[in-house]
Amino acid sequence: MNENVVFGRFMRAILQDKSPIPSKHQARINTNAITIYRLITGAFLVPYCIMLAVGGIPLFFMELALGQFHRKGAITCWGRLVPLLKGVGYTVVLIALYVDFYYNVIIAWALHYFMASLMSLTAGGGDLPWTRCGQRWNTPNCSAEARKGRDGFTSPAHEYF
């Protein structure tokens, strides 16, 4: 089966009115999803693959080879190789530090939702915490039947996230 046919069926299933997304955002999300579906091409892959082949992979292996040859970290390695370029080592370490900050947050989100899903299975109820009202974070305006046109009510998923 063609990938576009499968993706088209997937998008039609998402765009039906049975979506768990709060109704006030549904029209905007549907419009964006339709636009994205129409504009999907592989054009971004060409420059990505070129830059990966020309810059990314060679620089990655160069840094690995330099570190293995000198048996030192990035700062010491660049400082010994070309003392003038010692700042490159500091920059590599600083960029790794910045990436670690946001990557740890993403991993924490994934672990949180994974654990919440597991806890809902072991609690015996089987419902995910963001599918029903009555939780400690819900407001009195929470309604599991929040639909289009009912102003003042929010869905449990909207309040959870």
UniProtKB/TrEMBL annotation:
UniProt GO MF annotations: dopamine:sodium symporter activity; metal ion binding
Domain of life of the organism encoding this protein: Eukaryota
Alphabetized Pfam families for the sequence: SNF
UniProt keyword Iron-sulfur present: no
Localization: Cell membrane
Residues annotated as transmembrane: 45-66
Family annotation (InterPro entries): Na/ntran_symport, SNS_sf
GO cellular component, one term: neuronal cell body membrane
Annotated membrane topology: Multi-pass membrane protein
Similarity field: Belongs to the sodium:neurotransmitter symporter (SNF) (TC 2.A.22) family.
Name of the protein described by the UniProt record: Sodium-dependent serotonin transporter-like
Gene source species: Tropilaelaps mercedesae
